[in-house]
Amino acid sequence: MSKTLYSPDSFEVSQRKKDHIELTHKSKTSAATVDGRFNYEPLFFTHPEPSETWLSPFLGFNLDYPIWVSSMTGGIEKSQLINHNLAKLCGEFNLGMGLGSCRSLLNSSDRLSDFAVRKYLGDQPLFANIGYAQLEELFSSKKFQLLHDLVKKVEANGLIIHFNPLQEWFQPNGDKYKMNPLNTLKSFLEVSSYPVIIKEVGQGMGPKSLKALLDMPIAGIELGAYGGTNFSLLENLRSANEAEYKKPFIHVGHTALEMVEILNALPNKGKEFIISGGMKTVLDGFELKSKLKSPSLIGMASTFLGPAQESYEVLREHFLDMKEALLVAKKILNLKENQ
Ligand SMILES: Cc1cc2nc3c(=O)[nH]c(=O)nc-3n(C[C@H](O)[C@H](O)[C@H](O)COP(=O)(O)O)c2cc1C
Questions:
Q1: Above 60 in pLDDT, residue 148?
Q2: Domain assignment of residue 8, yes or no
Q3: Fewer CB within 10 Å, N or C, the chain?
């Protein structure tokens, strides 16, 4: 049935009018709750069409939206479903994806199927992932070749190396960092022929580390900032005796906002960024992407985890809502100059 322009008697309209009267008392805001980060410009807006995109170049790839699926899992039974669903999403919507730690593939291909997602992604960017502790081990045993083999094995475009010293410290039997990380990384970069991204896993990094990374021949940095999933906390929860003396370290680190401000004050040197760690709402990602002066994507991990475990359809619906909200933000908001 076609909608008439004005049909005051229709049930829907009269119900809406009743709701308006009944819900008015619950619908008051106070000036103190305004989200003051953005200018809101209703006169420059049209609602996004379902096919609308936000073309986002990243490391030479073309993404349809500035969204990166941040590294999560691999190596256990559940990983396969999660990774395959995430990769299908990236394939369908032209996004990019980081695999979770591929450590289990260094010496064996038994769990390759968890990570074998290239078929879904087409030409979209896919990055393998390894912890710095493994980089050290491979450096000591002169086996960097295993990492080059790994990147080929999963048909990745490059490698993400995560630095997670506090997580390792909290983790029962966690790995120890024994060598100067910058020297190890430098040695690796001299022999790697693919793009390398460096990230943290939920505590971000400070100005000295960021500056040191900007001076290196890496492709980019994923913030992995404080404010979202926190692996020190997670490992502390896992350990049988939660260690009181370690607990204060759960809360050290740098938020994504702080890291963006640090990065804006440093010379960029051609790097690209994935803003991740606590991007709880699309508006958080939109704010920081607008603020960072260098090319960037918004990276999200945990928000995709639940839907990816349920089914591809659930994950897809979740993403459709997210990208619609992102497009609404792009079209109706802009960052206030003093922000
Ligand atoms: C279940 C899970 C597993 C993760 N595993 C890895 C990993 O293997 N390698 C890595 O670099 N980061 C890993 N991360 C960290 C994320 O990539 C991301 O930096 C962090 O979760 C912050 O993003 P969020 O707040 O959107 O979750 C993992 C995150 C989650 C939730």
A1: yes
A2: no
A3: N
Report the CATH number that the domain containing residue 225 is assigned in CATH: 3.20.20.70
Averaged pLDDT, 64-77: 94
Given a cut of 60, is residue 288 above it in pLDDT?
A: yes
Q: What is the pLDDT of residue 1?
A: 46
The count of domains in the chain is 1
129 lines ligand 1 (CB under 6 A): yes
Examine residue 148 and state whether it is found in any structural domain, yes or no.
Answer: yes
Average pLDDT value over all residues in the chain? 94
Q: Is the CB of 276 under 6 A from ligand 1?
A: yes
Residue minimizing CA distance to atom 31 of ligand 1: 302
Average pLDDT over residues 213-227: 98
User: Is 45 within a domain?
Assistant: no
Does any ligand 1 atom lie closer than 6 A to the CB of residue 278? yes
Mean pLDDT of 218-230: 97
Domain hosting 259: range is: 63-333
Asked whether residue 22 is assigned to any structural domain, the reply reads: no
Q: For the chain, what is the HEC assignment?
A: CCCCCCCCCCHHHHHHHHHHHHHHHHCCCCHHHCCCCEEECHHHCCCCCCCCCCCEEECCEEECCCEEECCCCCCCHHHHHHHHHHHHHHHHHCCEEECCCCHHHCCCCCCHHHHCCHHHHCCCCEEEEEEHHHHHHHHHCCCCHHHHHHHHHCCCCEEEEECCHHHHHHCCCCCCCCCCHHHHHHHHHHHCCCCEEEECCCCCCCHHHHHHHHCCCCCEEECCCECCCCHHHHHHHHCCCCCCCCHHHHHCCCEHHHHHHHHHCCCCCCCEEEECCCCCCHHHHHHHHHHCCCCEEEEECHHHHHHHHHCHHHHHHHHHHHHHHHHHHHHHEEECCCC
Which atom in ligand 1 lies closest to the alpha carbon of residue 228?
25
State yes or no: pLDDT of 209 exceeds 70: yes
